[in-house]
Every structure is written in structure tokens, then in C-alpha cells.
Amino acid sequence: MDTLSSTLCSSDHCSFPRIPKTPPTTKPPPPQLNFKSKPNLPLPATITHTSNALLSASAKSRPLDQTLSLLRLLPSRDTLTWNTALSACLRHRRPIAALRFFQQMLLQPSEPDELTLRSVLDASLATGDLRLLLQLHAHIAKKRIESAVANTRLMGAYWKLGLIDFAREVFDGYPQRESVAYTVMSNGYMKAGRYEDALLLFVEMLERDGADVDGYSFTCALRASAGIWCLLVGRQIHAQLVKVSNGGDVFVGTALVDMYVKCGERGFPEKAFADILEPNVVSWNALMTGGELESGDALALFSRMRDLGVRPDRVTFACLLRACKSDVGIGLVQQMHGLVAKSGEVEIDVYIGGALFKMYIDQGCVCEARRVFHEMGDKDTLAYNLAIEGCLHNGYGSEVPPNNYTFASVLRSCEAEEGKQIHAQIVKSGAKVESDLYISNGLLDMYAKCGYIEAAEILFNRMSNRDLPLWNAMITSLARHGYAEAAINMFHELLSCDKMAPNHITFMGLLSACNHRGLVDDGYRYFGLIEKPTIDHYACLIDLVGRTGRLKEARDLLERMPFEPNELIWSSLLSASSIHGDVEMAEYSGEHLLELNPKDSGTYVTLSNVYAAAQKWDEVKRIRKLMKDHSVRKVPGCSWLMVNGNTHLFSVTNGI
């Protein structure tokens, strides 16, 4: 976006990846103007008001491209018009389009307001382009814009990019610092772990205007004291807090409790907690996180909390279970397990499930421990290690044999050789593979992912009871490995089953099969059977149509679908354009891709290859220069090879 750079701060450096050429059906980009180029007097306000109403309605209900087309047709535009366009671009994740409209706005009589600057700063942050953010900073300084909203937003943008010194520069440039400026700066220091700086800022705030120190400022200061485990500073902040009488606030009070708990000051957390007028679940959790809390104290706090009607959450149960020792008794462990299950809102994850598992194991209740293990959601390596270590440490290695759920879980992460060994172990255990859906789904998925399609088909044909996930796994696997006709035949076999109807996953596998064989007409026909197509279905169909060379049809599908195109869809269109050498369509899709993700190296490489095939060497140089200017690096291709259980990585940089 060269013109934006020059308009803001008279720079000749390019700030955005811009594809200058557009498809024939779109209008050419606006001419490059300067600040002195102003149009004639605006039209009457009634016309502008009506135009804004139309644009606002379009932005809420229509695709972004239609809204932007309407904007270009409006006879008159004011600040509200531009703000509506900027907000629409950001809502549809098109930050570069928003910045281009801001560029056009600067050439009009309309002056940017606080909403404009906020939108533009958000757009520049979304692009991740530091140079553009610096240019906007220079523009705000040059125009002497003293908007608190703009400066606060600019500080927040610098913080998100990790530019602490730049954020401090904006803060120091405030003519009259408001509490919100201190809040943003303090929050940034806290997130960066610079607790000492946050405390110094709090002291500065007290010295400049102590009357404006709000509860959030005290909360940040107390959290900073806890972060450096400095009890002395925490007590001084507490004393200052008593002077301004903010102790009853739930957020300040909770931070005070947390500070005393982390600094190891006994007795004071309870006193600070008692001063909170209406403690919430976070307040109770802060009180229960004390490392010195005994089982009885933790249970007493939990009982008081429930009596007062405060509903425990995941952190509450984790703190309670951590505080309870192995001597609490099996009855109490079962009660806590029942409370977790009864709450209905707390998932038995690795932390809560792991604590319950250990408590059951310590009590010698192997069966209950195994049940807890299978109740855990999304078990990872930590969960399995915890289960194995707990069983072996307590001498229960042989008493906890794997069951069907265990086999199914392990099969999801197996290679072919490991999967075969587990399959043999399943047969040895006497499990009925043909009738157990958990094991059969796991085995079929493992064999199919590893490329053993014949083994997956044999297993599928032996199944006496097939559910829809099993059908979907088989259809998707056949399509993934290029067996399109077999996948289509299996789909028709599914349709003939009673009480069995395909879902969105089934149709994704079917469309993928058509895509592998280039069956466009079949793809259209099956797409028409979907009651409510998702954006993934459209992406698959557009990819199918585009790869067969029917690029105009693919673009028509893209523009007619009721969804805003995502990166996958634009990438499919760009790939199809590259395959068939359509330069204009490649530029069209590439421009939209770079708006969504300016750092994607694949888009630059594909565009460069398209230009090279068309012998447009100047464009090739321009694309490569854009990559260099925006620090975009091509990710080298790599492959993995497993030999004797060891995984080896090979990349294009390895020598032969």
C-alpha cells in the first residue's frame, strides 16, 4: 500500500503486499492523490444520510464485496460512511481493505474521528506490520490528535506486538494522563512480567493525582506485589487502600487475598477475605490456593462456600483435591467425585481426574481409579503416565488390564506396526472386534490412516453392527487414498440402509472422492443433496470445479455462497489458477489471500510461479521484494521416515 505510506508520512517505502491488477469485472484502484486533492462540495445531508443507512444495512446482511461495491456507487460520503466501511472490513477480517479505504478517506473532506482511528489501529495491528503502525503513530503526532481513545488504542497495539518502549513513549506523550492510560500501561507491564515497572507506575499515579486511583489500579499493584513475593510492598499498598476505602470491592479484595496467600502471610488472607462485601468464586479460590492449607481447613472452606450459594468451578475442585491428603478416607473421596460429576459444568480433565485417580489409588480402590481414568476428556501423555506410574508404584500393574476404551484411545496415536501389535493384543484379550464399535472404529481408523485400505475394508465387512461414524471413516479413507469409485459405491450402499442417513461428514468424504477423480457433474449432484451446506462443503466443491479448469464457475460459486470466503477457499482458487495458468484469476485470489494473511509464504511463492510461467519477470521480482520487505520466509519442505521405531526428518536443505 504505497499510497497509504506516502499519504501518512511522505514515505516512499511500500508497507503492504499489494497485487495491483484486478479481474476485468472489478473497477480499477483509485488514482493516487495527495492531501491537497479535494473533491467539490458534498451533496445535501439528506442524500448522505440515506446512503449511510443503505450501506449500514448492507454491511449487516450481505457479503463484504457487495457492501464495498455499494460504497463505490454512493454519491456522497461522510465520516460515518467511511467508519461503516472500515468496521465491515474488520468484521470480515480484511484489514488491508480497511487500510485502503482509510487511504481514500484521507483524500476526502471527511475528517477521521475517534472511531476511525480505533478501526485503523486495529487493522494495522491485524496486519502485524510494524512500519505501518509507526506511520500511523507519526500521523497522529503530526496532526496533533489528542484523542484519548486513539492514544490508548495505540498503546495497546504496541503492547500486543511486545514493543514496550514504544508504548511507554505514547504514554509519556500524554498531555493529561487519564486513569485509562495508567490502566492500559499497568496491564501491559503485568502481562510482560515487569512487576517492578508496574509498581513504579502505581507510585507515579499516586503522586500525580491520587484521587483518580481506581480499584483496577490497586488490583494491578497488588498482583505485581504478589508477582515478586514482596510482602512489604503489598502491606504498603494495603495501607493506601484503607485510606481510600476500596477494600470492599470484590476484585480488589480478591487481589489482596491472593497477595497475602502467595507471600505466605498466615492469618491475613482470612482477614482480607472477611472485608469483601460479596465474595465470588474467584475470591474463594484465592483463599483455597494456600500451600499450607490442611485437608480439614479446605473442606471447611468448601462447605461454607456451598452454604452461601456460591457454585464451585474447575479451579475450586482442583484446589480442594490438591489440599486433601491420602488419609481423608474413601467415603470423602467418593463424595468429592460425586460433587464433581453432579455439578455438570466441571469436566474431569487431566488435573481434576489425575487428583481423583491418585486419591483412589492411595486408598487401594483400583476399579474406581480406572473408572476415573476413562472419564477423563482428551487424555494426553501426562494422563497415561500418571495412570501407569500410580498403578506400578502401588503394586497394581497386573490388576488393571486394558479394556476396550483403553485400546480405542491408544489406537488413535499408533503407527502401523504398533497398531498391529495392539490388534494382536485385542484378539488375545478375547474382545469381540466384530461387535464392539469402540475397538472397530479405532482399528479401522488406524489401518486407513496408515494406508492399509484392504485391511480396513476386511474389518468393515466383518462388522455385524455398523454405525454412521464407521461408514464415514470408511468413505473418507477411500476418498483420501484415491479410491473414488469405491467411496461413491459405499455411499450408495449407506443410502440403502434402514434408519441410517448421511451427515455433513459423509458428504465431505463424498465430495473429496469426486475431487480426486475430477467428477464435476457428480460433485454438483451430490452437493445438491445436502440440506444445509457448510463452508467446508463449498470449499470442496470450489476446489473440484477450479481444478478441472472451470475457473469462472468456481468464482461464481464463491460469490454466490452465503459465507464469507476463508483462506482455504481463496487458496483453492489460487492453486487452480496456477495449475491452468490464469494470471488474472491468480491475482484476484492472491490479493484476497494476502489481505487475510499477509505473512503466508505459500501465497507469494504461488504468485511468483504464476508470473514466471507467464514470463512476467518484473512481477516475479516485485513479489520477491515484497517477501523480503515483509520478512516472509519460505518454509522448506520436509518428510518423516520411521526406521526401527526411530523417526528421521529430511528437509530440502539436507544433502544427498
From TrEMBL:
Protein name, UniProt field: Pentatricopeptide repeat-containing protein
GO biological-process terms attached to the record: RNA modification
Protein keywords: Repeat
PROSITE patterns per the UniProt record, alphabetical: PPR
Compositional bias per record (Polar residues), positions renumbered to this chain: 1-13
Compositional bias of kind Pro residues: 20-32
Organism for this UniProt entry: Acorus calamus
Pfam family, one: PPR
Domain of life according to the entry: Eukaryota
InterPro entries: E_motif (IPR046848), PPR_At4g14850-like_plant (IPR046960), PPR_rpt (IPR002885), TPR-like_helical_dom_sf (IPR011990)
Residue ranges of the TM segments: none
GO MF entry, a single one: RNA binding
Chain residue ranges for the region called Disordered: 1-34
PPR repeat feature ranges: 78-112, 178-208, 436-470
The keyword Zinc belongs to this UniProt entry's keyword annotation: no
